[in-house]
Amino acid sequence: MSPTAMWIVLGATSVLCFSIKLLGHLVPEPWLANARLQRINALIPISLLSALVIAQGVVVKTHVVIDHRLAGLGVALAALFAKAPFPVVVVAAAATSALVYHLH
Amino acid sequence: MSNLTRGTARDSLSVAITVGAYGVAFGAASVAAGFSVVQSCLFSLLTFTGASQFAAIGVVASGGAVASAIAAATMLGTRNALYGIQMAPLLQVKGVRRVLAAHVTIDESTGVALSQAPRGVAAMREGFWITGTGVFLFWNIFTLLGALGAKALGNPASWGLDAAVPAAFLGLLWPRLETNFLRGVAVTSMVFAMLVTPWLPAGLPIIATTAVAMMLGWRAR
Q: What is the span of the domain harbouring residue B36?
């Protein structure tokens, strides 16, 4: 991605995310009270975060690729099951992945 | 300071410091994705909503298009509007203070405010402001530290940074999976994302998974 494109991502994301926050403070409550909208809105973060785990963990460009990252992700999953705090999860994943990367 | 408000301040600050520390992961991931240290800090100062920030840089890192990165970040940010709807009647602020309140309307400030309900409206307001400004402060400090650290480290794969990002997403996802239905949504979304990956341009599978949320959220359960 070109430097200009990256600035556009930064600028547009910031403007849109702030606008959404402000919108919540300005609109009358009934506007977003629609039950279906609320149900879908509650599920969207789950779908997007799940897709991001896949896109970042096992995808290279447009291919599913199994590599050192999956080892890290596996350890992260184990750490989450063990109720480890967030920083531990991330560091454990990074350490495992780096280890597998160098051994390979 | 009364005992009641001291309790609120303690709750707020402990959340602010803990959550703010995750900024290290964002700063490092952002630099690993190719953003500069300054850009990474601007993300945390201006976008200031963690999951959206991670999504934007995540799509960029996976080679996605500009529009995909912006769309993923924006869709993850829509829940903040729902928080604003809940917080506005509680805070009763206008003008500049309303703009500031909007900027710090995130998961944590809303969560702490709601959790202070037994202590009364004043404690709820205090919880919102201390948590919101506290997370803002620590999130930005730690973003800078993470970005500088990653810049010093060099090759992301060599230090496992390329696995730290999906692990961070998994860590953000985990506490949301409270019921079997929600866990089902997550697994379905992951399988869907893998299935469409070979058929769509990079980054687009992430946006496409919102179709799973729409289908599964269409009818009441």
A: 3-176
